[in-house]
Amino acid sequence: MTNSRLILPLNRPQYIALPEGFLSAIAWRKYQNLAKVDGKSQALKFRGVDSVKSLNVTFTDPSLKSDDSGAFRKNLQKYGIRIAEDQAPLSEAVSNSILGIQPQAGKTIPASPMTKHLALLQNLEAISGSANPVGLSEILEIIFCLGEQDRTQESVLGLWESAMEMRTESNILLKAVDSAMRDSVPLFDNLTSREKEDLVSIEHWPALLQNTPFSWFNKSWRTITSDQWVSTLPPRVWTDWATTVLRMGYGLAYLWESAWYVALARTVIGGQSATPEEIISRMDQILPWRKLDAGTEVRDVNSKIISRAESSLRIRETIDTWFSQQSKTHVSFEEEIYELSKDKQVMVEFADALRPMNASDKTQRLREAIFYSLQTRDEEDFFGLLAKRGKYKLPEPGIEWIAALTSLAIGHPGNKSDLAAVRSNLAEAGLEPNLEELTNLLEVAGLARSSADSDQGMVVEAAF
Amino acid sequence: MGTVEDLLSLAAGGGSVARHLLDEGNQLQSIGLSPAGVDIAVNTFLQAIEKGQQAVLFMVGGPGGGKSHAAKRIVSNFEETDKKSSMLAHRVHNYRHASSGSKITVINDATIGEDSATEFPLVNDLQSAFQNGHSMICCVNRGVLVEESRCVDPQFTESVRVISNISAGFDPESTNSDNSPSNLTSYFYWYEEVIEGKRILVIQLSFDICSLFEDAIHDDRFIPGSNSTGSLQEMSIARFRDRYGSEELSSNAAILLNESVNLVKADIAPTTLGSNPIAANLHSLSHRSVVNGLVSIARAAEIAEGQRLTYRELWSFVSKAILGDPADATNKESLLENTKNPSGDASFRVMAELAGSRFSQALFSVRFGDHIAATSESSNDPVSNFLKLVDPVRDMSPGVFKPSEGHFGWATPINEAFTGSTEEVSPLKELLTLDSQSNGVMEKVVHEFDWDLDKSFSTAVSDPLLDSKTRNSYISWYAGYLARLFAVSNGIPAFLSVLDAWTELWNKAPLIPEEIRSKLLTLAKPSRNPENKSSSSLIPLFDSRTVPVIGENSSPKLALKVDDVVIKTSKQANNLFLELGTGNEFARLILDFSLLREAMASAAGYAGVTESSSLAAPRLERFRASILVAKAKRNFVVMYRDKEVEFQIESESE
């Protein structure tokens, strides 16, 4: 055992500047890193500007250059698109139609990753502007595994690949676009598959992580990649919903992790007995969701998340340091807790870590990873959970966020369920909006109509 | 206590209403109106017990619907076997018939869990009633039914099944799974099933289906025969334009309001009060057409909000209509003291504040200084919050009110009343003159109090020392007062044309009148160029939101041409649905007030925008998104500038 049992086996995160980066990272997980060019990492951008000197940027939009545009048009025709008028700007129209969210003043304009080859049109190097971006796809696989109860061999990538096969089977236009894109981007000729690698050992965690954002992510990813949802949702809507599941899973997992370390430190200091289940039961709400009329300062989660992120990182480091100094092997979780609580230095550091703290540089990556995944990006983003109001961040989900999460909670397209089921699904993700507010959100999204007496029994319909 | 005190105690709503109404000696109790289906449920249940059959009656609905009242009627000839303190609300009461020995268990409030050790108390109670041969009355809301139907304990299989049937709906005789089970859309429903070897009659009575503000349903003609199942679904929603001009009190709400007015009159002798807003209310509400007008306002709010007022809320409505908005009054003396006109020449401010108790102001909780009714943040009164969407001053459409001819504008007389000569300012006199020309009802509505208010207004605005800002605020407030008095007395809510169209659609479903059809189509698929009749509707193929393309587009894009959308409507109890189809596939969205209002704001092929646009947009966008995945034949286009070039896809020829 190389790590303490108390440490959640989750790699350190980084913020993902564009939501499209999540699906693109999954798509690239299948392949080995692109070879360096002139000693620089290769960054793929669909459109945008070449802004980072340390990267070798390739623009993948085939309609950008006039000769490529002609080739792209020919490829589109080769795969079955028949257009009578030669004048019609077919390749440009296709490229414009697959644009993702265009951030204001953004240096990268992504393609919406609606199919396999559209997802490969950009990589994390380009999105993060860094030669060594975080291993996002591995983190997502770990979150998925941590939430997995049945130890199946399935993976985030595997489920996505079958969904994309289903996508191109059911949509002949996108199939033609996907094939034409594959033939039009020269880089795609030389991709080498990556060998399957083992994930870190996760041992006892999945049993503990039932009914947490980890299990929520596992179930939701299985649901959204199921044949029924892939064939029911229009491709762009599917992509937006799948991205929402990934964003939420990523952000909420790290929120859960922060709350875990804080509860653990409190337990050790309080000298209470502690099985991991007991520590989990003492955890704070990972994202306090107060009533709308409670006032901005009370509803704000910014300061709470910052403070908890600071505490959790210090607690994690303290445990790490302590563990590395241990000479004997501890046989159980409870024993580690017991040993930890006997160490005076640890107690001092824990007590110190639990004091409310302001943001420091050390936790910047963790903070940003959480906020950027949960926060509404711009006015075109209807899938955010947190709204930014000056220095505050408030739980005010976008209208399509509630449509997506509710529909996935219901499980099958066209089905109905009730408010209680939706609430318990959100609670699994760590979100506990007040009943009245949730009712209101569902009504605004057109998914439910309340009656005076239905309470938790209010009928809720899937959006598709 | 007198009638006024009784009515004051009902004004605030809350749980005391049920108990208070059950008190013996409450004058108002004598009005005794039953919601739809109660009479038949009571009779059916008692007849079954008389015949020795075991019966279970579920009375389903939110608080204040009249469930406890109905339960009390059933057990009136039974003895309570384990009588409990009447001070507390209890979950279970047991009764026994003195001669026959039949036993009834009443779950008075299924939300009370007295035995906290049991996770599913209702399932437990029902199972033991089945086993012990008791009949049972169960007052329950839908939320409890959903929660209890989650029980998976095998020893309670029968009772869980019955509760699930009531909660999620089922039809023992229906083979068509597409239709909603009739027990979810009926106000009265029954079936029989064999449990523990006995045939048990299960009755469901829903208190939230029929509006108290529509014609009352007389179901005494109906007696469940030998059929083992059946339902009563018949309900009517009057077209709004047909609500006008009748003197007949045909709804439960109208009868209740009318009789309450008579009882209060007997209690306080209004003619002795002189210029007093409550006396003025009693005067105005003595006229049946005015009573019907108030009922129409409440019904309009029900349709606009998509909800129904309960009996409890109706009492609060009646109390406000008659006694105004009695701030601190708890008895007759304090109420009359608070509303007393201090002298014949009281200032406009004093009079205007008293006018807050006039029915047309009190229902919307409008106080002096507010032009528009208080918003939800500032009003904690559930009834005025409910009514505020249809406050007539939100939508003062010009015109002279002729609903039978489809002319729903009404505010012209109000405007004209304020543009008269300045020599002697009396907007009320002007209004009455104009109203009498069209045989209006205002002559009967106006009371000595209104004349005193009018006089104080004239005096105030004629004062040369009055600054123009105050003067304008007086005029504005008084215009709002007269507008509300006029509109509420006539039963004119805001957005009457939308409400009339909605009731028309509900009555004609699945047909849609041509004028509304074109507006609904404009909303669903606005054409790219509304000026050109042959212009198509285009939906971008891969955008995040399926907002149709209007006008030229700057950069080329792919789109789907949508021309062949068919629309129809369908209804289920109070709900109206819009069904939009392409090819053989239909998407169904609820056609409520906000969606229809949005549609009716569209003109000449251009989609309109209202404050409820954000409520309607997600539903419309999802409909359009569903077209994108429809299996029907597709017309794809490349659109650029103002052009559209179609293209086809042949299956792969790799």
Folded structure, characterized:
The complex is a heterodimer of chains A (464) and B (654). Chain A contains 21 helices and nine strands. With 464 residues, chain A is mostly helical. In chain A, strands 1-3 form a two-stranded parallel ribbon. In chain A, strands 2-5 form a two-stranded antiparallel sheet. In chain A, strands 6-7 form a two-stranded antiparallel sheet. The longest helix of chain A has 36 residues, at 235-270. The N and C termini of chain A lie far apart (47 Å). The relative contact order of chain A is 0.12. The mean pLDDT of chain A is 91. Chain B is α+β, with helices and mostly antiparallel strands. Chain B has 25 helices and 15 strands. The radius of gyration of chain B is 29 Å and the shape is flat. Classes of the chains: A mainly alpha (464), B alpha+beta (654). At the A-B interface, strand 4, helix 3, helix 8, helix 12 and helix 19 of A face helix 6, strand 10, helix 25, strand 14 and strand 15 of B. Strand 4 of chain A pairs antiparallel with strand 15 (643-649) of chain B, so a sheet runs across the interface.
Helix amount of chain B: 25-40%
Q: What is the percentage of strand-forming residues of chain A?
A: 5-15%
Global shape of chain A = globular
Total helical elements of chain B: 25
What oligomeric state is this?
heterodimer
- Classification by helices and strands of chain B: alpha+beta
Placed side by side, the strands forming the largest sheet of chain A appear as 1-3
Low-confidence runs of chain A: none
Mean pLDDT of chain B: 84
Question: Which residues of chain B form runs of ≥5 with pLDDT under 50?
Answer: 373-378
Q: Please state the average pLDDT score of chain A.
A: 91
- Can you summarize the main beta sheet of chain A? 2 strands, parallel
Q: How large, in whole angstroms, is the Cα Rg of chain A? A: 23 Å
Report the sheet-strand fraction of chain B. 5-15%
Q: Report the end-to-end length of chain A measured between terminal Cα atoms.
A: 47 Å
